[in-house]
Amino acid sequence: MIPVSLTSPACLPRELVASPVFLLGRLGVELKRRAADDLEAAGFSVYDYSVLALLAQGACPGQMAMADVLKFDRSQLVGLLDGLEERGLIERRRDPNDRRRHTVTLTAEGQRQLTRLRAVVKQIEEEFLEPLDGESREQLHALLVTLATHHDARFAPPAAAAAAAAG
Predict the structure, then answer these.
(1) Residues 53 and 102 placed together within one structural domain of the fold
(2) pLDDT digits (tens, 9 = 90+) for 87-139
(3) In terms of Cα–Cα distance, which of 90, 86, 101 is closest to 55?
(4) Enclosing domain of residue 145
(5) Under 8 Å between Cβ of 85 and 146
(6) What's the confidence (pLDDT) of residue 4?
(7) Residue 19 and residue 21: Cα distance in Å, rounded?
(8) Is the C or the N end of the chain the one with fewer CB within 10 Å?
(9) Do residue 59 and residue 84 come from a single domain?
(10) Do 74 and 149 belong to one domain?
(11) Which of 13-27, 29-43, 58-72, 135-149 is predicted least confidently?
């Protein structure tokens, strides 16, 4: 083991290392930077990926609903959708029941690009979680979902969300 002095930039205070909040924050910053860099290298943003992933679940009932689900500013979403539409990745159509709304769907090219982006994200996950075995990864994911769901019910797994709604 290489001795590290307390003045070395490589030495973090034990108090910080002992704090799950500090560790999650640091890891989150690193993951966000890495995802932004790798997705940008693929020609997309983290926001583009979020929109495409949402649309992969099916047509979205409107742009305002999309903004709300993704917690994006509505004007920001319009710009993102404009860019994705120009690239032929999504299609917007007027809702025949409400001409003020547009439904948004993923095109075949959008699905192909999403498949590509999923591979990029999977590679980031594999590299970042490399020190953990499969069981540890599953445990980490379960714990993160529990925390996320506690703070935002939208993170609840589908079965849990259905049970909560029923009862």
Answers:
(1) yes
(2) 999 999 887 887 778 889 999 999 999 999 999 999 999 999 999 999 999 99
(3) 90
(4) 133-160
(5) no
(6) 47
(7) 5
(8) N
(9) yes
(10) no
(11) 58-72
